[in-house]
Input
Amino acid sequence: MKKPIAWRLAVLSTTMWTSLVMAQSHQNAELGQFLQEFHQNPSQVMDQLPAKTAKQASLFNQSDKEDNQFVAKKDLNRAQVLQVQGRAGMQYNDLAENLVDNGRDLISNLGEMDEKELQKAQLAESPWSDDYWAIAKGILGSRYADPDKNETFDWKDNFEFTKTNPVTDYITNGNIDYLSPSEKYDLLMGDENYTLTKKMWAEGKSYYDQSGKVEDWMGICHGWAPAAYMVERPTNSVKVKDVTGKHEITFFPSDLKALSSLLWANGRTNSNFIGGRCNAKNPAKDRATGRVTDQECFDTNPGSWHKAVVNQIGVSKRSFVIDATYDYEVWNQPVFAYSYRYFNVETGETATTYDKAVIKLADFSKDKFKDFRDSKTKKIVGVEMRLEYVVETQPSHSKTDSSNRDATNTALYRYDLELDAKGNIVGGEWYSNAHPDFLWTPPVGEKVRTSVDRYMNGKTLEDVVTKGSRFSPRTSAQGLPLPLVIEKLIKESRTEK
Output
């Protein structure tokens, strides 16, 4: 006999509750095991990578990992973001209020965070995923959807493919869809020299001429990461005539994302930034604990980190960019969500509010970092945070895009927070050396700027393309599509058909 609905709901509720309890028990066991190992051998545990789910493949080879060569390579990427030197604890270049949108009203008290139920938060919509557009593939010069193109990171092979298969062949054969994002843009603007596309390949040529190769990991993720939440998601493909009216071009959402990412990679923008740069492949460490003592390589302080995450995602409801971990994994990722719980640093017992887990610093007999504590510290509490951030995906000829197509990773970070007598965060210590490196975001409403913006205007996409055709070669030579053209294309993609 069919059971009544109330009975079935009760069974379902019991099953879900049992699963939740089991998951909680498993997480508690994991935390307990981690803390036990940490107190027994902190220097070994400090060098472990944080747990991640849906982890992407590394962009560095094994020899890079073994000799820490990836540190120098990642620093090249940082240099493209901002030229900022030095990092230490919660000092002048590591203040959360210099990053978050609500800096003047920043919440730094754990009790207030709990009262406002900020232990977890998620943005209304995730930043959009996109490719990092590898330089080895020609950046936006990559004909990613061409079925005749081999998938390779050999820059020379990729470049030769474009030489033996010129754009004119695609136009003649009715295969404009297979052109690269930059080729479509050049064609749209009537640029017969294909200036933007040439700029894309020239970027790789300079590296290839120097070393005979282009590293797989090099790309424009520093442009994609901010564009993913500063630029509206292109939701549909757009069909538009080129400036001559001869050719109809389809810009798929992946093409529009690519052009937006390139804008934010090469255009002039302002950014709020905390943290810094570390060139040392093997920074100095405390022998007993394994803690990095080289102040330039300590990275963002846990206190600054916690305040930044909670205030930017939980309070301001806007993303920011992190270097996910200071290791050979992917970096420059836009944050989507977080959740955290507390633990008693002495006993390992967990709690959902800080007042149930906090202890006096004087009662922390197991403190491995007592020599590094801030002088204002009176109390201390442990934090286990799960951070979800958006990662790259492969471009496609899908005609639509939504958050269902985004990909995310979740990383687990453990640290403690140093508090003053009132519960205000004054510092903290990481329980792993592989943790978020630096944090940054463009301010609210920031736009990419170019040298020809004052000449650009037009109400319709056609108007803007016509006006822009005079100026596009100038900005394309700098690796920049015209911002207003891309803005109009995306607006068209979001218009209900």
About this structure: The first strand starts at residue 52 and ends at 53.
